[in-house]
Amino acid sequence: MAQVRLDKVTKIYDGNVLAVDEFTLDIQDKEFLVLVGPSGCGKSTTLRMIAGLEEISGGDLYIGDRRVNDVAPKDRDIAMVFQNYALYPHMSVFDNMSFALRLRRVSKAEIKKQVESAADILGIHELLQRKPRQLSGGQRQRVAMGRAIVRDPKVFLFDEPLSNLDAKLRVQMRVELGRLHARLETTVIYVTHDQVEAMTLADRIVVMKDGVVQQVGTPMDLFHTPTNAFVGGFIGSPSMNFLTADVKSEGDQITLTGNGFKFILDDERSAAVRTSGDSQIQFGLRPLHVVPGEPGQAQFSARVDVIEPMGVEAFYHFNVGDAAVVGRAEGGARCKVGDTVQFGVDYDGLHLFSADGTKRLNA
Amino acid sequence: MKKPSKLRLILTHAFLVVFTISVLYPVLWVVSMALTPQQGFDMSLIPIPCFDASEMAWRCTPTLDNFAHVVSTETADGRWLFGRQLFNSVVVSAATTIMGIFLACTAGYAFSRFRFPGRRAGLLMFLVSQMFPGTLMLIPLYVILDALGLLNQLAGLALVYSTTAIPFCVWMLKGYFDTIPKELEESALIDGASPFTIFWRIILPLARPAIAVTALFSFMTAWNEFILATTFMNEETAFTLPVTLNNYVGQFSTQWGYFAAGAILVSVPVMLLFFMLQKHLIGGLTAGSVKG
Question: CB under 8 Å to A334, separation ≥6 — which residues?
Fold first, then answer.
């Protein structure tokens, strides 16, 4: 059993820089948890506190049932994979993978067995006698994972493990990581700034910003109901479009007006806006819900600046007032650059936030 | 890469040849003097032993007699003096090297990795100490060695040499340790290594090129040093080789043949060391510029 429990875990550097603010979370056994956020959001610091590489300034950290705040990294039963792999350059792959076991004075036969079994899982058997510098990026990455697997830890910690790989290899290793997790059935805590990695790998995602947890949920939770504008903008590619609107009450209906649009909201959304009492709000729309040439429940009419045909879909860039907006439709380009087109907005994709973006208004 | 033009190639080589000659010319003189049986100071244009360039004729036969004489010097009571002095030089240099490396590795690592009060001040002091010529310290060092009863002792000389070599070595090694990614140590820490194990099994093996440079530097500091040695040592059985060499240079006449032969003998070990460590030296001197 290897739940990891963080209870108001806080990190303060040099007495005044708040890096992580009261991080509270229960990570389930065998869960694949991804910490995601822009650089400097405290995700790596959180991971390093779990690893024991950073001291915890406040709060409690439990691995299993044991409070480990003051337990040395080697006794926490964790293994960590670093962004730059951190393979020992002067040791062969075999020695790299067996280093921890040798330090624990495991018998030679047992070491050989464990290393070879890990090497088989990762398909790096033929590399065991090589030095790290003789390996490609992907192979180094595998060795780094192998080194973690050999230790048979309760919890795997990954710190941006794919960031140093080229795009193609990253996709490939991402799939392998998913497969590996399914096979090893171990708790994984994974840090990345790449929301695609987060979406594809995670059982649950934690979005962080400025040391504060913004939202915790499954990838689909975060995608469909971001709790604030930051999460909405961070998750999903291309990102959510944001527009600011004035709230006007016309009878029972609420209208959102701004430079270049006027949306008459339905009852449910009107109620949500009315409850907030805000006179100005921000709303988000994913490109998915802004479709050229469809009627929708509301419309933008705009001149298309750029079209990005991707094959199965195409993205349409245009401006509404001062705001840049992206629409999407399946298939090839439906119009030409420079055409003025009607974009239909689907209210199912309307995310209403308070004007400063910190609060979600609709359910 | 573009192939350089012929003219460029010729100019480059001409430049290199000129400089190689200007570097080797004095050395050839020394070799020439060492092989000439006379003890004169012969500054002929063409440094060929026994060859008189102005008359285009041989004056004598080149021999190895000077080397034989230098190597076979004896004390008044008939003991082998050259052997004794060679031993002194080796012991002092080896002791300096070992102490220098040991202390510089540990200090350099601490300066590189730990944050402690006095870290900056310590590093600066090491740097400042390098700005003064060693002779400036001659008198204080003499007084200190005298108080410790280490005058005329190899241990005293080794101690002084270590202290002069260490600041440079610490800076050199600290700089190299700085280039070793911290993640390696963190990874080892999670793997269960103690700080000492990390230092011994991860850091030191990786710092080999820098350690080679440091070793060579420490060795040469001690091996070539003359002024301190001649001041602190006053018995010929305690002399190191540079001091002996200087004794061939008299106030009224100088035995140039012996001096030259001795100089060549003294440089042989250093040259050998250079050849042995060459591979590491290149890596060490360019340390930090390229991370592999």
Answer: A292, A293, A314, A341
Q: Whole-angstrom Cα distance, residue A168 to residue B68?
A: 71
CA proximity to A202, closest of A190, A193, A214: A190
DSSP A85: -
CB contact under 8 A, A51 and B190: yes
Is some CB atom of chain A closer than 8 A to the CB atom of B193? yes
pLDDT tens digits for range B114-170: 999 999 999 999 999 888 887 788 899 999 999 999 999 999 999 999 988 899 899
- One-letter amino acid at A258 equals G
CA distance A80 to B187: 7
B193-210: per-residue pLDDT in tens? Answer: 999 999 999 999 999 888
| Domains of chain B: residue spans and CATH | 79-285 (1.10.3720.10)
* Nearest neighbour of B191 by CB, restricted to A90, A99, A133: A99
Where is B23: in which H helix or E strand?
Answer: helix B6-35
Q: Let me know the angle formed at the C-alpha of B32 by B30 and B38, rounded to the nearest 5 degrees.
A: 100
Q: Which distant-in-sequence residues (6+ apart) come within 8 Å of B78 by Cβ?
A: none
Q: Which of A53, A78, A135, A164 to mutate to test the interface with B (most CBs of B within 10 A)?
A: A53
With beta carbons less than 8 A apart as the criterion, state whether B66 and B37 touch.
Answer: yes
**Nearest 10 degrees: Cα torsion A194, A10, A156, A34:** -30
Q: For chain A, list the domains and their CATH numbers.
A: 4-227 (3.40.50.300), 241-354 (2.40.50.140)
Closest by alpha carbon to A292, among A324, A265, A330, A266? A330
Q: Which residue of A has its CA nearest to B197?
A: A103
C-alpha span between A141 and B147 (Å, rounded) = 60
Would you state the structure tokens that stand for residue B249, as one six-digit string? Answer: 């240079």
